[in-house]
């Protein structure tokens, strides 16, 4: 179309019903002389009539359900990615629990070194910790991968991890005595220990 853009805008204003009287007269004069603009206006009127004629068409009741059922099934990987995207906190918690479980289980399997808490009046023979007769140990005693024999007194808790808590003992313990030989007991012990350290800090 070679006519100035002004006439195209006037055609659109006329079809929208927004044209002024002066511009309508100007458009009519131009349309009498220009076959291209007449054809353009005629095509636009036909398009508008077609769109208006389809506005009363109603879709079948189950149209949306039918279209959705016809779509290919979503892959599990995509569904999982969407779930992780929509639940970031649960995803992070699941990953954290998974990593922590792996760390805990590997620590349980590889932690074979003998160790004992530091108290000056304990006697150690091989992997056996002895509280000598007549001695009082102040504080908690933790023995890892060893045994304990209490002949004196312990003023605190005694915890034995991977070992025997008493070997023919005749001594006295004022606190709790725990023997941890199951992984869940060991995990719970670590949780309590770290919580206590955090509270003390």
Automatic annotation (TrEMBL):
It comes from the Bacteria. The chain crosses the membrane at residues 89-108. Keywords: Membrane, Transmembrane, Transmembrane helix. Residues 8-38 form the Putative zinc-finger domain. It holds the Pfam family zf-HC2. This is Anti-sigma factor RsiW. It comes from Priestia aryabhattai (Bacillus aryabhattai). The lineage of its organism: Bacteria, Bacillati, Bacillota, Bacilli, Bacillales.
């Amino acid at each position: 179309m070679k006519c100035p853009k002004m006439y195209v805008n006037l055609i659109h204003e006329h079809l929208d019903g927004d044209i002024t009287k002066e511009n309508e007269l100007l458009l009519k004069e131009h349309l009498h002389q220009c076959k291209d603009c007449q054809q353009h206006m005629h095509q636009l009127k036909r398009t508008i009539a077609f769109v208006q004629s389809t506005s009363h068409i109603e879709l079948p009741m189950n149209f949306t359900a039918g279209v959705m059922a016809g779509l290919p099934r979503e892959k599990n990987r995509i569904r999982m990615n969407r779930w992780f995207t929509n639940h970031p906190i649960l995803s992070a918690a699941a990953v954290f629990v998974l990593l922590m479980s792996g760390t805990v289980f590997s620590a349980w399997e590889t932690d074979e070194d003998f160790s004992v808490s530091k108290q000056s009046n304990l006697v150690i023979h091989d992997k056996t910790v002895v509280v000598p007769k007549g001695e009082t140990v102040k504080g908690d005693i933790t023995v890892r991968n060893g045994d304990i024999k209490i002949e004196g007194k312990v003023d605190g808790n005694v915890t034995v991890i991977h070992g025997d808590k008493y070997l023919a003992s005749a001594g006295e313990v004022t606190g709790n005595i725990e023997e941890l030989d199951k992984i869940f007991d060991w995990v719970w012990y670590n949780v309590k220990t770290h919580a206590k350290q955090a509270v003390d800090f």
